[in-house]
Amino acid sequence: AKNQGANRYQFFSESMNEQAIKRLHLESLMRQALKEGMFEVHYQPQYSVERQQMVGMEALVRLRHPEQGLIFPGDFMPLAEESGLIIDIGNLVLEQACKTVQQWRDIGLYKGHIAINLSAKELDLDNFSDHVEAVLAKTGLPANALELEITESSVMQSPKTAVESMQALRRQGIMLALDDFGTGYSSLAYLKKFPITTLKIDRTFVMDLESSLEDRQMANAIITIAHNLGLEVIAEGVETRDQLKILSAMSCDVCQGYYFSKPLSQRDMTTLLSTQQGN
Ligand code: C2E
Ligand code: CA
Ligand code: CA
Ligand code: CA
């Protein structure tokens, strides 16, 4: 039995070691990616339910690895946040997305906005809103064409500075969306407390809309409350025509999901914009 215990211990410490090595590898890969331009921004369309046209898009970051291909944020975001690299990655996404979208706007391909995800660490920076202002000035993107997506949990990491940042961003005319609504803290009180313009209903509520009466009632209640507070509502993760129909009947404003399109590379989005009219 003693022997077994020793073996188990050895196994345990080896796998810990392996994990630590993996983390080191991933961290140095992210540093390399920042230096060598291996991070890419992809764009997922958001469609107005009423007007049936693209009114926005969400920027989603990917790491293009020379051998492994595309690596998705689920695999590197947690470590990016923990290590603080998220600040540089977030910067890169903000600059790249604002610049690209303004180029599309300049040549008349696109009239809508760009939504960009923020991490808790960015929101907690002292001069974050000044930084965003500088990026808008540099790229020429108007403030009202930028929407920043913030989760409740990232606001709650340091609520005071986060809300101050949000207020400063709103004063510039930047739109603010509360992301993943319905997961995590999900307190209705935050809808009044946070200076937001938009509410994004999480995919977990959209997933079972067809089969679950409870989820339909929940989605309907969220949309009604949001509208009463003057907020625009976006549903994320819309994958089927029936989900779209149900959300449309509930007067959801905007839908986003695989039913319309997966996130597209800059090149593929340029092609999509060129083949659509009146965006
Ligand atoms: P999120 O902000 O909730 O983004 C939505 C995620 O759902 C994206 O995953 C998107 O590709 C995926 N998605 C979109 N439509 C559908 C659908 O119809 N069905 C399903 N099953 N999934 C759908 P992705 O791109 O892997 O991003 C995952 C998360 O990583 C994001 O969740 C966001 O929290 C984070 N993230 C991505 N890019 C950035 C970034 O530039 N900065 C920060 N801070 N976080 C980012
Ligand atoms: Ca988001
Ligand atoms: Ca989301
Ligand atoms: Ca999510």
TrEMBL record:
<feature type="domain" description="EAL">
    <location>
        <begin position="23"/>
        <end position="277"/>
    </location>
</feature>
<protein>
    <recommendedName>
        <fullName>cyclic-guanylate-specific phosphodiesterase</fullName>
    </recommendedName>
</protein>
